[in-house]
């Protein structure tokens, strides 16, 4: 029997030990004459993990998550045929961050490695890419997909939307080909509106003008909720073309950018909140890894079980959105 199904074998998470609560950000922005209490309530924040030393970064977090997921899967680096490293805050641009992971886990010389960047949509898109690539390549049986961002490095201390909202973390997933039926990757759908390309920018002036010296993200005020009606259309189309309804989905792992956006999607579909995995109050917004951290926490709590249908949805700067279906 051909091994065409691509299953999520294991998922692991790494985050710094340092926890920063809302109180810190209340006081920080009060000095600027801002009261951000309502803002953090809308975003759904309480705590977040923030790097507080000069030893941790996007790469170290990604490597730690990779080592954890390999241990959980009882695999070694030699078992990995593909490494995708998704990040919007790369520790290195030359060579790839995936190169450092390859070295750290002792992967073999035929391993395919690649850094990817679809901003906050990156890790979900990378899992989709890896799954589809594995389905067409007989030589690739096991993939390691990592999503990691040290967002605190570029969060703007004068903008609550990044400084008080974003956080640091990494997630890692092992994908495997399997002969098991009724499991694995189902389908995905994308939506891009490039007219919003200048709303969230880093570096604001581009590397050619700044010579690589830029401190913070430039996040222009705009209504992020404008994407939600299109997101609902995407989800409806994805489900319909796979013969499913919203009630057939067991768990939802959405972008943790804003609690208010998740509630808008919930209200549109009249979803049971118990099916939605929410971790933004504990983790803050970890950008590329956020839907996979939802998966990790859902599995850990027992809310997501083998055989469950899981729907992922997330959005990246620009904007670009992806919705993806998996039978876990």
Summarize the structure.
It holds the Pfam family ACP_syn_III. This protein has two domains: 5-178, Thiolase/Chalcone synthase (Peroxisomal Thiolase, Chain A, domain 1); 184-327, Thiolase/Chalcone synthase (Peroxisomal Thiolase, Chain A, domain 1). The protein has eleven helices and 13 strands.
Q: Can you walk through the features of this model?
A:
- It is a single chain.
- This protein folds into two domains: 5-178, Peroxisomal Thiolase, Chain A, domain 1; 184-327, Thiolase/Chalcone synthase (Peroxisomal Thiolase, Chain A, domain 1, 3-Layer(aba) Sandwich), CATH 3.40.47.10.
- It is built from eleven helices and 13 strands.
- Helix 8 (228-241) packs across helix 9 (259-269).
- The protein has 328 residues and is of the alpha/beta class.
- A hairpin with a 3-residue loop joins strand 12 (309-316) and strand 13.
What keyword list fits this structure?
single chain, 328 residues, alpha/beta, Peroxisomal Thiolase, Chain A, domain 1, 5-stranded mixed β-sheet, 11 helices, 13 strands
What is the topological layout?
Elements: E1 5-14, E2 19-21, H1 22-30, H2 37-43, E3 47-49, H3 58-73, E4 82-86, H4 97-105, E5 112-116, H5 122-136, E6 142-150, H6 160-163, E7 168-178, E8 184-192, E9 200-201, H7 207-210, E10 218-219, H8 228-241, E11 251-254, H9 259-269, H10 280-283, H11 290-301, E12 309-316, E13 320-327
Helix pairs in contact: 3-4, 8-9
Domain Beta-ketoacyl-[acyl-carrier-protein] synthase III N-terminal: 114-191
Domain Beta-ketoacyl-[acyl-carrier-protein] synthase III C-terminal: 239-328
Keywords: Acyltransferase, Transferase
